[in-house]
Amino acid sequence: MDSVLHWFTLGLALLGTLAVGICVHELLHLVPLHLADIDYAIRLLPEGESASETGSTTGPATWTSLQSALTSGLVRVEVTRVPSETPDWLLRVAAALPLVLALPLVLVGAGVVPDPLTTGDHLAAVVLIAVTGCGLPSPADWSVVWHGSKRLRDE
Questions:
Q1: In angstroms, rounded to a whole number, what is the distance separating the alpha carbons of residues 126 and 113?
Q2: 80 in helix, strand or coil?
Q3: What are phi and psi of 77, to 5 degrees?
Q4: HSE of 47 in the Cβ direction (CA atoms, 13 Å)?
């Protein structure tokens, strides 16, 4: 029974860390955008493209919200206006800033903090892996890093 409770605790820690980490990932985009006075919108439980394309709006609202959260995230940041004087590097930094969530893994690799895998701390290992995963840029983030500033100005 102790083993089942241990795995259940690890699973809850993983899901909780992922939920919070994904929100932090999206909100980290706001730091440079806010400092540069770029207009943006924050959407909680945004509508996913998959639900609107298929027209599957007949289900209950909670099921639609759950599908949307799984397919398009819990939080979405959308840039609505970019001033013409905004430098391209600022948009690229805003897109790549969630990489700071991988900093704990870098600190473990550098030996600054103890490695939870070698110490046997399963909970810390699960949280470390989940936070690092949340720091990975999405395809939309990479699109902005490479050529998004041009696309945003064309719209």
A1: 15
A2: strand
A3: -105, 125
A4: 9
pLDDT digits (tens, 9 = 90+) for 54-91: 444 445 556 655 555 555 678 888 888 888 888 888 98
For the chain, helix (H) and strand (E) counts, in that order, are 10, 2
Residue with tokens 């550098």: 110
CB 103 within 8 A of CB 21: no
Give bridge partners of residue 41 from the DSSP assignment.
Answer: 78
- What pLDDT, in 10s, does the model give residues 83-141? 888 888 898 999 999 999 999 999 999 999 999 999 999 999 999 999 999 999 988 88
Return the DSSP state at 147. I
* SS3 of residue 108 by DSSP: helix
φ and ψ at 6, to 5 degrees?
Answer: -60, -50
Q: With beta carbons less than 8 A apart as the criterion, state whether 9 and 122 touch.
A: no
Q: Would you say 113 and 136 are in contact if contact means Cβ atoms under 8 Å apart?
A: no
- Average pLDDT over all residues of the chain: 83
- Cα–Cα distances (Å) from 6 to 9, 19, 122, 133, in that order, read 5, 20, 9, 22
